[in-house]
Design brief:
globular; about 250 residues; Rossmann fold; 7 strands; alpha/beta
Length: about 250
Amino acid sequence: MSQIARKAAPVANAGDVDRVTRSLSPEEYFEQRFRNIVHPGDLVLDAGCGSGKYSAGKNSYPYGYKVAGLDTLESVRENSILDYRVCGSVNELPFTDASFDVVYGRWLVEHLESPIIALREFHRVLKPGGSLALFTTNLLHYYGAVARATPQWFHVWFNCRVRKFQATDIFPTYYRANTRRRIRKLLRDAGFCAPAIQISLVEGSSSVLEFNSLLHGLGRAYERVVKRFETLDSFRMNLIAMARKE
């Protein structure tokens, strides 16, 4: 694979982030950030890719990068979006050091029982100059706080009954790296240098509360407030962590 010269992505200030995300969902904004760090010819590790619902491979064309998907589930073998499919654990990646240009983890961090182990593995398999892109739930948002405080059976019931998810798409959550302060510390402990870590918090919609008109109204009010005041950004719904291996 040819080596591509890399430049550090500019750090967006809080005002810029807020203006951009007004017209994008948190997921769309994360995908935009990911596309800014991936290059033609890159090899991307999609960690915890599952059957492909949130796969990094969905947007690989026309950007010209290859995606290796890894998950502990056999469903990864049915993920047609990937270029390479591997059954394995993020806690013990079956790859040699410096194998990947980018590691991508969407809706992964909240499911890690020991996040520091996985983050050290991500750092190990990244090439020097490679980047890590993570998208997860913020524990300081009401959604994350309620999710952490409720048992797994409730998650299954609520997501299947109210949100119409498939039970096979619902996994245990731990939320052990899900605040800005916590994930920044873990990334530093994993080997990423502080200046190469960028943490953004973005607010999503209150659609999860649509089952109740009163709760939905309160959720809409919450959404407007945390979007308007930058001092309240720590209470926004989603956390995006970007880190570069020096």
